[in-house]
TrEMBL record:
CDD domains: PLDc_ymdC_like_1, PLDc_ymdC_like_2. Coiled coil: none annotated. The lineage of its organism: Bacteria, Pseudomonadati, Pseudomonadota, Gammaproteobacteria, Oceanospirillales. PROSITE patterns: PLD (PS50035). It comes from the Bacteria. GO terms for biological process: cardiolipin biosynthetic process. GO terms for molecular function: phosphatidyltransferase activity. Residues 137-164, 376-403 form the PLD phosphodiesterase domain. InterPro entries: PLD-like_dom (IPR025202), PLipase_D/transphosphatidylase (IPR001736). Pfam families: PLDc_2 (PF13091). SUPFAM superfamilies: Phospholipase D/nuclease. This is Phospholipase D family protein. It comes from Billgrantia endophytica.
Amino acid sequence: MLTPAEIEATWLGQWASLSAEAHDGQSGFALLSSGQDAFTLRVLLSEQADRRLDVQTYLMGDGLTTWALLQRLLNAAERGVQVRLMIDDIGAVGQGRRLAALNSHPNIQVRVYNPTTIGRGHLTTRVLASVPQAGRQHRRMHNKLWITDGAVAIVGGRNLGDEYYSASEPRNFTDLDLMMIGPVVESLSRSFELYWNHGLAQPVERYHQADANAWEALHAALTERLSEHADSPYFSDLRERYADAERGSLVGELHWGEGVALWDPPGKPAWPGRPPLARTMAGELLARVGEPARRLVVVSAYFVPGRNGTSLLRALAEAGVEVEIITNSLEATDVPVAHGAYQPRRSALLDSGIVLHELRAEEDAGSETAVSVRASASALHIKALGIDDDRVFVGSANADPRSVWWNTEVGVLARSESLAAEFQALVELGQSPALSYRVGRLEDGGLYWEANSLGESVRLTREPGSLFRHIGARVGRLLWLEPWL
């Protein structure tokens, strides 16, 4: 980790220090709901880095935004910035040559998490190679973390890939990040160090070799690709979007308050069996949140509450707490099997007065929303909680057994009334009938999905989604996969 003096000597460290002068001991927060904003901020942080860039991700795609960010990482390394990239081994499948080329730069280190030694070229062979160690290899490092100069950090749901930054056609993820400065960044830096130095994080050169200067060819290839796409609709939109942005400003107004960084122990994937809840990030989050007094909002791409989670949520609702859930509809989800495990829980949740919203696959034409910048097909990828009127949690963990028991996760619990108000405004936007279905109960016990289409209210009594998706959901129910999803 960088020392306080080293952080203070960087441009970002000085900016963070000056910004915090009037907020004694507090951290500053900004929500990043726009994919374009989230991408641009990462570009700016790469370009402003003086000493260190630490990036932790579950997946890394191959597209415009990834090319641009990798080019910026190489540019930073050429300036003398120490770059560390940590990626889950599943996310490294088929990318050995590129990761090895990055790693060949003297100022860049790449490590893969929970690796296997064989089958690394293709997802099918990687899965087959995992079978002898299935008890460990089905567990993944799901963390998403970006730290620049120990001064500015980003956590949330976004991996590296076009679909997370509104750059993919025709389908993007609706996602959310939390940018931070202040004391909470030091805790997040400590979490990165723990993962980086753990035995499950292995140098990529143990599995993939590259020539000493392979990074030069990679940099040239990235530069050529980006030059060819300089006038792409995405980059043209970015230039127009930020043409009048204030120079030197990373984000708009910051929210100030207390921030607590939470993460799973880095050795969790190697633990035998299901760990005690108290040893997980989810357990610590539950302990810190306690029982909400008035309101609980759960926004989760994959919502699989299980028997215990359903009972907990029902008890809160029956005690007078307003409980609202936002997740993907069957037609929008990219994992129908997980939706199938959620389906049997809906009736019990609704009977307790819990409000259910399911994101639609497409927005109404011409709708303007801060949650999803581009009016195209989308799927929810947010992982966040709103607690009462003063707390927000944003991280990498879904409300499902996989995030609780099997994967590692990271997130931040922030206490700030103004941040909570902004989060609630995003929630209300996402709940609008133009963007999501309101799920309710019919008199005969069945369910309905209510939304707005082309300005008119519609009520569906058959769950929206293709036959293929309905079959996938049925598989999730028939095979009783709930504990593993």
